[in-house]
Amino acid sequence: MTTYKSNTINIGIVGVGTVGGGAVTILARNAELIANRLTKIRLARIADKDLERASKLVSELGLQDVIISDDWHDLITDPTISIIIEVVGGINLPMQIISTALKNGKSVVTANKDLISSHGDELLALAEENGVDLLFEAAVAGGIPIIQVVKESLAADKINSIMGIVNGTTNYILTAMSENNLPFAEALKQAQDLGYAEADPTSDVEGLDAARKIAILASVAFNSRVKDKQVPVEGITKISQWDIQYAKEFGYAIKMLGIAKCDGRQIEVRVHPALIPLTHPLATVRDSYNAVYIESDDVDKAMFTGRGAGALPTGSAILGDVINAARNICLQTRGRINCTCFASYPIKSLDDTISQYYIRINAKDAAGVFAAIAKALGNEDVSIASAMQKRWISEHNAEIVVITHAVRHADFMRAVEQIGKLECVDAVENIIRVEE
Amino acid sequence: MTTYKSNTINIGIVGVGTVGGGAVTILARNAELIANRLTKIRLARIADKDLERASKLVSELGLQDVIISDDWHDLITDPTISIIIEVVGGINLPMQIISTALKNGKSVVTANKDLISSHGDELLALAEENGVDLLFEAAVAGGIPIIQVVKESLAADKINSIMGIVNGTTNYILTAMSENNLPFAEALKQAQDLGYAEADPTSDVEGLDAARKIAILASVAFNSRVKDKQVPVEGITKISQWDIQYAKEFGYAIKMLGIAKCDGRQIEVRVHPALIPLTHPLATVRDSYNAVYIESDDVDKAMFTGRGAGALPTGSAILGDVINAARNICLQTRGRINCTCFASYPIKSLDDTISQYYIRINAKDAAGVFAAIAKALGNEDVSIASAMQKRWISEHNAEIVVITHAVRHADFMRAVEQIGKLECVDAVENIIRVEE
Predict the structure, then answer these.
(1) Do the Cβ atoms of B224 and B343 come closer than 8 Å?
(2) Which class is domain B350-434?
(3) pTM (predicted TM-score)
C-alpha cells in the first residue's frame, strides 16, 4: 500500500469493554505492521466510565502517553484527534457521541449495529455534510469483511439475495441441538456457560440482533435504506429436537437466517429459523461461526465465512475501518464512500413473501386424517412436496410432517388455520420456512 | 457511495474473448446501476485482433459509439481514455500493452495472473512512478473478492497462512473422482466436455495455474514478493481412486491446494494435492468452486468461496476494479494503493517444510513387512499416526497405507527412499501431504 510515513494519525476510543479492548490490543500489538502498511496510527485518548479498567488495559499493553478520561466530550473536542472509535453500545449515548464527533469534523468507526440499523441514514447524512467518514464494517458479522466487499468489490454487480447466518449465539445453539441432540434449553445454557449467549438471551434467540444485521446488509446491497424495525422476526425458541430430527430425515438442516432479497421493485427482508438443504453451503457453517451467502447476477453464488463476534475478530474489523479512514485523511478524501442508498424500494409485506414450509401436526391416528389435512392445504392452493407420518405421540395420536411447495405466506397461514380447526387435529406443533 | 455524476470516465478494453466479453456485457447491462453507484463509465474503444468478434459483441449489446480497432496502440494513445482493461492473456504482449498504458498515464485493470505473478513487481513500480492504478482482483479466484479484502479489510491483521482451492478445473476433477468414483482420465474428459478444462490441461492439472494465484495471494498477504517460479508444484495426475477411497476411510478428502504461510521470518509456499479432514471447511467446496481459507492473528479463521472462473464472475471482478480506479480518478487519488510489498522474506526450502504425509505402498503380503516399513520410517524419526493394510493386489501382494505425524519433508523423503529399497516392497505407489 502507498505508505504515508510522515503522517501520524491520532485516534481516540470511547468504550474499552470486550470489543474496544480487542481493538486497542490489536493496535498495540500490530502498531509496526500498520505503520508499514499505511502510516502510524496512535491511540491518543480513551474515554470509559470505568477508569480503572481503562488504566489497567493501558498499563498491560505498555501504551505510552494515552490520556484516559471518563468523559467522552474530552475526546470529541481534542483537536489533535481525527478518528473516533465508538464501542459503547446502546442507542442514545452513542448517537450523541457519534453525531457530535461528526459535527466536530472527526471520522467515526463504530461496531454499533443497533444504532446503524436504526439511525444509519441520519448519521451517514451528517458524515456527508461534515465531509468525514462513518464506517461500520464491525457492525455486521464481526471479523468477516462484508460491508466493504459489497460496497466496493461487488460494485459492478446486481445482488439479488443475501442469506446470512449473522448471529453466532443461535448458530451455536442450533449446532448443539443438531449434533449433540440437546433440547433448546440445555443448548442455550451451554451457550451461556461458554459466554456465547448473554444472561438475557432475548435479543439473540428472538432474532432482534440478526434483524439489525440483515437490515444493514440489505441497505448496502440494494442501495435502499432498510431499518431494523422493518424486519419481521421469528425466534428459535420453538424449535424442538423433533423438528431437527425430521428435518435431517428430509435432508435439511435448521439454521437461523437473515434473508434479504430485491427484485428491483421491492425489498423482501425477514429473520427466522429455516430448513435449508444439507448440501447448501450455509448448512456446513457450524458452532458460533457466521456466514453471508450472496446471489448476484454476475458473481452468481459467493459465501463469506468467519467469526461473527469476539474481541479480536471484531477489533480487527474496527481497525480495518480505522486504516481506511486514516488513508482518506492522508489522501484528503474523507467522506470517500458514505451513504450508498440512492434508491428507495418499498418493503414487501410478509403476507406476500413466498416460501416452502415445513409443518408438524399432532393429529388423531385414524383413517382419513391425512386426507383432511391435504384438503385443507389444497383449499388454499398449497401443494405438498413431501409428507411423512412420524412418531406416535400416544395411543391415539401421531405426528404428521409435511413439506409444501412454494406458497404465498398469507395463503399458507390460512391453510394452517384450517388445519388447526380440523377435528382430527389436536395441534399444529410448529411451522418453519424452507429455503433453497 | 459518493456519486460523481458530472464525470464520465472513458475506458478501453484490449481483448474481448470470454472474460473480456463478460466484462463488456456487464458494463452494458449494469450501466445505470454503476452510474448510480459512482459515475458514468463509458466503453469508448475495443481492441481485438478478431474485428468480427468485437463488432458482433458491440452490436449484440447495442453499444453506441464504440470504436473498434485491431491495434491496441489506438487505445493506449487515445487521450480521452483513462482506464485500460487488459484481458489478452499470455506474457509478452500484455506486458507491452500494460507498461505502455501505465507510462501513458492510464490506470490498468487486468485478470492476467501469469503476468502479475511473474512481473507484478515491475508493473506495480511502473504504476507508482506514473501515479496511476494497476488493479488485478480478477487474477485470483475469479469472482471472489480477495485481493481488496486482504489489502484493505484485513489491513490491521497479521495473516499467518492461506490455503486456497484456487483452480476450478482440478477441484471439478477431484470432486468427480470422489463423488462419482471416476478415474482421473475420465474425470478430466468430463471437465473438458463441460468446458472446465482446456484441450491441453497441463497448466491446471500440473498446478502451474494454482502456483500463479498463490504467489499473488502470498505477496499481498505477507507484504513480500513471491513469484510464480518460486512455488514448488505437484499435479493431481497421480491421484488414483484408491487414494481417494483410502483418504475417505481415514476421514479425509483430497483437494488441490495452494498453500502459503509466513512466520515473520520466512515464507513457505507450495501447490499440491493434499488430504484435508472432511470436517475442514475447504473439504465442503465442491465442483469448480474456488475458496480461500485464511488464518490470522485476529480474525482467526475465515473463508471466502465462490466461482473462480467464468465470463461473468471474472468480468464482475474486473469491473469492481474499474469502479475503484474510476473513483480514484474522480477523487484525484490515482495510485491510492499500489505495491504493498514493503518486506522481503526469503522462501523456505521445500526440504524444510513440515507436513503430515499419506503413503501408499505395494508390498509382499508376508510376516514382518509392516515392521520393516515402520523401521524405515523410524530410522528418519518419522512416526506413524495411523496405518492400515488395505486391498490385496495379487495373491502375494497387499497394499499398506500409512499416515505419518508431522515431519520435515527431507527426512520423510529419505524414509520413502529406504522403503522403496526394502526387499518386501514392490513400489511406493503414492505419497500425498496431509494438511489440517
Answers:
(1) yes
(2) alpha beta
(3) 0.97
